[in-house]
Amino acid sequence: MRHKAMHSLGQGATEYLVLLAVVLIVALVSIALLGFFPGLASDSRETQSAVYWKSSRPFAILETGVFRSDRTPFPRIILVLQNIDATGTFTINNITLSTSAGEDVLRDVGSISPGETKSVRVPILQPISNAVGTEYEFNVRISYTSAYGTVNTQYGSKPITGRWT
Known about the structure:
The chain is of the alpha+beta class.
Protein backbone atom coordinates (compact mmCIF):
# COMPACT_ATOMS: atom_id res chain seq x y z
CA MET A 1 0.00 0.00 0.00
CA ARG A 2 2.82 2.35 0.84
CA HIS A 3 4.44 1.72 -2.53
CA LYS A 4 1.25 2.74 -4.41
CA ALA A 5 1.00 6.11 -2.55
CA MET A 6 4.61 6.96 -3.37
CA HIS A 7 4.02 6.04 -7.01
CA SER A 8 1.03 8.44 -7.36
CA LEU A 9 2.98 11.29 -5.73
CA GLY A 10 5.82 10.74 -8.18
CA GLN A 11 3.40 10.64 -11.09
CA GLY A 12 1.84 14.01 -10.08
CA ALA A 13 5.25 15.65 -9.80
CA THR A 14 6.29 14.25 -13.18
CA GLU A 15 3.10 15.49 -14.84
CA TYR A 16 3.65 18.93 -13.32
CA LEU A 17 7.23 19.09 -14.63
CA VAL A 18 6.18 17.96 -18.12
CA LEU A 19 3.41 20.59 -18.22
CA LEU A 20 5.83 23.28 -17.02
CA ALA A 21 8.33 22.26 -19.72
CA VAL A 22 5.66 22.54 -22.43
CA VAL A 23 4.68 26.04 -21.25
CA LEU A 24 8.34 27.13 -21.22
CA ILE A 25 8.92 25.76 -24.73
CA VAL A 26 5.87 27.60 -26.08
CA ALA A 27 7.07 30.82 -24.42
CA LEU A 28 10.59 30.43 -25.84
CA VAL A 29 9.28 29.72 -29.33
CA SER A 30 7.06 32.83 -29.17
CA ILE A 31 9.95 35.03 -28.04
CA ALA A 32 12.24 33.56 -30.68
CA LEU A 33 9.72 34.20 -33.46
CA LEU A 34 9.31 37.82 -32.40
CA GLY A 35 13.08 38.24 -32.20
CA PHE A 36 13.76 36.65 -35.58
CA PHE A 37 11.32 38.92 -37.41
CA PRO A 38 12.44 42.44 -36.49
CA GLY A 39 10.45 43.89 -39.39
CA LEU A 40 7.22 43.10 -37.57
CA ALA A 41 7.85 45.83 -34.99
CA SER A 42 8.49 48.54 -37.58
CA ASP A 43 5.53 47.40 -39.70
CA SER A 44 3.22 47.68 -36.71
CA ARG A 45 4.58 51.18 -35.93
CA GLU A 46 3.88 52.21 -39.54
CA THR A 47 0.35 50.81 -39.35
CA GLN A 48 -0.37 52.49 -36.00
CA SER A 49 1.00 55.78 -37.30
CA ALA A 50 -1.12 55.62 -40.46
CA VAL A 51 -4.29 54.84 -38.49
CA TYR A 52 -3.60 57.64 -35.99
CA TRP A 53 -2.91 60.30 -38.63
CA LYS A 54 -5.88 59.35 -40.82
CA SER A 55 -8.20 60.09 -37.91
CA SER A 56 -6.45 63.15 -36.42
CA ARG A 57 -8.14 66.56 -36.31
CA PRO A 58 -8.30 69.13 -37.79
CA PHE A 59 -5.77 67.85 -40.33
CA ALA A 60 -5.53 64.21 -41.28
CA ILE A 61 -2.44 62.91 -43.03
CA LEU A 62 -3.85 60.44 -45.51
CA GLU A 63 -0.55 59.34 -47.04
CA THR A 64 3.17 59.84 -46.66
CA GLY A 65 5.89 59.15 -49.17
CA VAL A 66 9.35 60.09 -50.31
CA PHE A 67 10.29 62.28 -53.26
CA ARG A 68 13.82 62.35 -54.64
CA SER A 69 14.99 64.49 -57.51
CA ASP A 70 18.20 64.78 -59.49
CA ARG A 71 17.93 68.56 -59.19
CA THR A 72 18.35 68.61 -55.41
CA PRO A 73 20.43 66.39 -53.12
CA PHE A 74 17.84 66.66 -50.37
CA PRO A 75 14.92 64.24 -50.19
CA ARG A 76 11.41 65.48 -49.52
CA ILE A 77 8.67 63.88 -47.49
CA ILE A 78 5.33 64.07 -49.25
CA LEU A 79 2.32 64.54 -46.99
CA VAL A 80 -1.23 64.31 -48.29
CA LEU A 81 -3.26 66.47 -45.88
CA GLN A 82 -7.00 66.72 -45.55
CA ASN A 83 -8.98 69.28 -43.59
CA ILE A 84 -11.53 67.09 -41.80
CA ASP A 85 -12.90 69.90 -39.65
CA ALA A 86 -16.14 71.45 -40.91
CA THR A 87 -15.73 74.79 -39.11
CA GLY A 88 -14.16 76.57 -42.07
CA THR A 89 -11.09 77.18 -44.16
CA PHE A 90 -7.75 77.05 -42.36
CA THR A 91 -4.49 78.65 -43.44
CA ILE A 92 -1.52 76.39 -42.76
CA ASN A 93 1.33 78.64 -41.60
CA ASN A 94 3.95 75.92 -41.39
CA ILE A 95 4.54 72.20 -41.06
CA THR A 96 7.46 71.10 -38.91
CA LEU A 97 8.98 67.62 -39.11
CA SER A 98 11.43 66.92 -36.31
CA THR A 99 13.77 64.22 -35.07
CA SER A 100 16.46 64.21 -32.43
CA ALA A 101 18.82 65.55 -35.15
CA GLY A 102 16.80 68.71 -35.76
CA GLU A 103 13.76 70.20 -37.46
CA ASP A 104 12.69 70.84 -41.03
CA VAL A 105 10.00 73.42 -41.66
CA LEU A 106 7.80 74.08 -44.67
CA ARG A 107 6.38 77.61 -44.44
CA ASP A 108 3.40 79.30 -46.09
CA VAL A 109 1.62 76.14 -47.17
CA GLY A 110 -1.59 78.01 -47.97
CA SER A 111 -5.25 77.57 -47.22
CA ILE A 112 -7.26 74.39 -47.14
CA SER A 113 -11.07 74.25 -47.15
CA PRO A 114 -13.21 71.72 -45.26
CA GLY A 115 -12.88 68.32 -46.91
CA GLU A 116 -10.16 69.54 -49.26
CA THR A 117 -7.04 67.43 -49.81
CA LYS A 118 -3.64 69.01 -50.38
CA SER A 119 -0.29 67.39 -51.19
CA VAL A 120 2.80 69.12 -49.76
CA ARG A 121 6.52 68.34 -49.98
CA VAL A 122 8.65 69.06 -46.93
CA PRO A 123 12.41 69.21 -47.72
CA ILE A 124 14.55 67.22 -45.31
CA LEU A 125 17.77 69.15 -44.66
CA GLN A 126 18.73 67.60 -41.32
CA PRO A 127 21.45 64.93 -41.23
CA ILE A 128 19.60 61.61 -41.25
CA SER A 129 20.10 58.25 -42.87
CA ASN A 130 18.00 58.20 -46.01
CA ALA A 131 19.36 55.00 -47.52
CA VAL A 132 16.81 52.97 -49.44
CA GLY A 133 14.92 50.63 -47.13
CA THR A 134 15.77 52.36 -43.86
CA GLU A 135 12.92 53.56 -41.70
CA TYR A 136 12.11 57.24 -41.22
CA GLU A 137 10.24 58.65 -38.26
CA PHE A 138 9.29 62.31 -37.87
CA ASN A 139 7.32 64.11 -35.20
CA VAL A 140 4.77 66.41 -36.83
CA ARG A 141 3.64 69.86 -35.78
CA ILE A 142 1.19 71.87 -37.92
CA SER A 143 0.71 75.57 -37.17
CA TYR A 144 -2.45 77.04 -38.68
CA THR A 145 -4.77 80.02 -38.53
CA SER A 146 -8.48 79.30 -38.16
CA ALA A 147 -11.26 81.01 -40.08
CA TYR A 148 -11.70 83.25 -37.00
CA GLY A 149 -8.09 84.45 -37.06
CA THR A 150 -6.76 82.46 -34.09
CA VAL A 151 -3.41 80.75 -34.46
CA ASN A 152 -3.39 77.11 -33.32
CA THR A 153 -0.97 74.21 -33.42
CA GLN A 154 -1.76 70.55 -34.00
CA TYR A 155 0.75 68.24 -32.33
CA GLY A 156 0.86 64.59 -33.26
CA SER A 157 1.07 62.14 -30.38
CA LYS A 158 2.48 59.58 -32.85
CA PRO A 159 5.22 60.28 -35.39
CA ILE A 160 4.78 59.60 -39.08
CA THR A 161 6.82 56.58 -40.13
CA GLY A 162 7.72 54.88 -43.35
CA ARG A 163 10.64 53.56 -45.38
CA TRP A 164 12.94 55.43 -47.72
CA THR A 165 12.46 54.24 -51.30
